[in-house]
Known about the structure:
168 residues, two-stranded antiparallel sheet
Amino acid sequence: MQFNKSSALDRLNNLGMDDMPVIEYTPTKCIVDNTWFSQYVKLRREFLTSLTDSFTEIAFMNLSQDEFVNLVMGKSIPDNLSIRFRIPLMWGGTLTIDNLFMCFSFPHSQNLDRFIIEQFDAKTVFLPNPAKKIYVPSHLSGGGPGGNAASDRLSQAAMNFASSRGNE
């Protein structure tokens, strides 16, 4: 299916991601080197440890303290989180941190797969391109009438992270 920017954004809205920005991209079919996965494993760890600048977004993911520490130390990715390529490798994407972002696996990563697959035969595609390393939909990042504990979780997580690195 060939989207234009408006129809691509409409489709993302229908998939529950009305705040997901897109980039227009002309896919270049290419052969992915057979060592890509070992390079990706190293890059994934670098990406996770680079998330120390993303404490605010992580706070809205409602992770436990252990999940948070393991995530930013590059040890493990909590259940229901996925690392995605902004531009797929088979379309000319690179194995670099700036070509990665993280989001919830369900429903966001699954819906993004659906969105990209719908464009498989298009000459120009629209790819998800969140502004930050972590995509948290805007409707999940606000508090309700009772407020939210994101700032408390953020403060506590940052203190725990700093103490785990010996930086009190």
